[in-house]
Specification:
alpha/beta; binds flavin-adenine dinucleotide; seven-stranded mixed sheet; about 20% strand; single chain
Length: about 375
């Protein structure tokens, strides 16, 4: 980090990516007197938390986003820009036309087996697991899941969903995907265990606008395409794009799992009565239906729903989830060594670090950089 206003180049920092990582970094840099330029190749800011307003409803364009954290500093930080509502994520699973509460809790167990108390539920789960007790070291995800929860939960709520999500059979997936299955022996449908949770009142764009307030942002600018000129105008770079792209994929391509979203405007006020419903049947091609107005308790006359389809990733499409298998992790480590040799570039965020981060992790990481 150099002196503010060193005047050596037009900007102290070129920030590549106007997502949450880039926006928090830019805000903190500006606060300390650094001259910042933020660019993004997309036509909007916000990265994957961006929402498009349609019929007065904030539509989460890149998948449903619920802010949740145990970190009070991060919670206070985001609340200093925008107030958060009391949204609690309580998704449902729909299978064979029946609805089950998630995460697995007493409501789920009651619906599955009619058990009403924690001890009845524990006995039932034990009975289900007993049949698979002989599996001492599971060799694939199916064996792992059966050992952890038995047949009923696996077949109804895990198998189809996981196979759609990863595009492979559970018998071909590694055990590492499901390390443990948290069972909750209370009637509590709150998906997260974190102390703080909510959605910004007015949407995520409001949070990003506040972070970027007073900072120059150029949209539709691709760093990789224009890097020769862009490198001339700033002393240092904060890079939040894909790390393999930065190095022109010289060591190979990192792999991702992608998603496809189909948004539909319906002329009814309430379609499914909940923000998120998972479809765990293999025969249903999508994994989730999102009804966006419920994130903000919307009272609009219409509603917007989104069908979320898992998708194989091809270079040039939107990279959503890193596939952190051995091949990709080793490749990432090689890129990381190259990155460490770049003296004036910081690689940060979900794409530059090839890691799934929740929003609170991203904010915590960037704030830590300034400590
Ligand atoms: P991004 O948001 O991806 O921002 C990177 C930006 O860099 C993008 O805007 C991109 O266009 C830009 N860029 C890339 N390359 C270039 C280039 N060459 N030139 C210019 N610009 C470039 N987190 C939660 O906490 N709660 C949730 O409920 C939640 N749900 C999620 C659901 C889905 C489906 C997914 C995929 C993620 C979810 N997340 C959730 C995680 C959350 O989206 C991330 O933590 C957050 O978006 C990461 O921010 P980022 O700035 O690191 O990356």
């Amino acid at each position: 980090v150099h002196n503010p206003n060193s005047m050596s180049k037009e900007y102290d920092y070129l920030i590549v990516g106007a997502g949450l990582s880039g926006s928090v970094f830019a805000h903190e840099a500006k606060k300390r007197g650094y001259r910042c330029l933020v660019i993004d190749k997309r036509p909007h800011f916000g990265g994957n938390v961006y929402c498009e307003q349609i019929a007065g409803i904030n539509v989460h364009q890149y998948g449903p986003h619920i802010f949740h954290t145990d970190n009070k500093e991060v919670w206070d930080y985001v609340n200093s820009f925008v107030e958060f509502n009391r949204f609690t994520n309580s998704p449902l699973a729909c299978v064979n036309g029946r609805m089950y509460n998630l995460p697995f809790n007493l409501n789920t167990f009651y619906r599955l087996w009619g058990v009403r108390t924690p001890s009845e539920a524990k006995d039932k789960i034990e009975e289900q697991r007993k049949r698979f007790a002989h599996i001492s070291s599971p060799s694939n995800l199916e064996e792992q899941a059966l050992k952890l929860c038995g047949e009923d939960i696996y077949q109804l709520l895990i198998k189809g969903y996981t196979e759609k999500q990863w595009g492979r059979k559970c018998t071909e997936l590694p055990t590492s995907i499901i390390k443990r299955l948290p069972f909750r022996f209370t009637f509590d449908n709150n998906y997260f265990n974190d102390r703080y949770q909510g959605v910004p009142i007015g949407g995520y764009n409001k949070l990003i606008s506040k972070l970027l307030d007073g900072i120059e942002v150029r949209l539709g600018v691709d760093y990789i395409r224009d890097r020769t000129e862009l490198n001339q105008i700033a002393d240092s770079i904060f890079y939040t794009g894909c790390i393999d792209e930065y190095f022109d994929h010289s060591l190979g391509y990192l792999e991702y799992r992608s998603l496809r979203f189909e948004h539909t405007l319906l002329e009814i006020d309430n379609y499914q009565g909940n923000a998120v419903v998972n479809f765990t049947d293999r025969s249903v091609p999508y994994t989730r239906v999102i009804e966006h107005k419920h994130f903000e308790f919307g009272k609009q006359p219409n509603t917007i729903i989104t069908h979320e389809y898992p998708n194989a990733y091809k270079h040039g499409e939107e990279p959503y989830y890193p596939i952190n298998n051995q091949r990709n992790n080793e490749l990432y480590e090689k890129y990381k060594s190259l990155a460490n040799q770049q003296s004036n570039v910081v690689f940060c965020g979900r794409l530059a670090e090839y890691k799934y981060y929740d929003m609170d992790d991203v904010i915590e990481n960037v704030l830590n950089l300034w400590k």
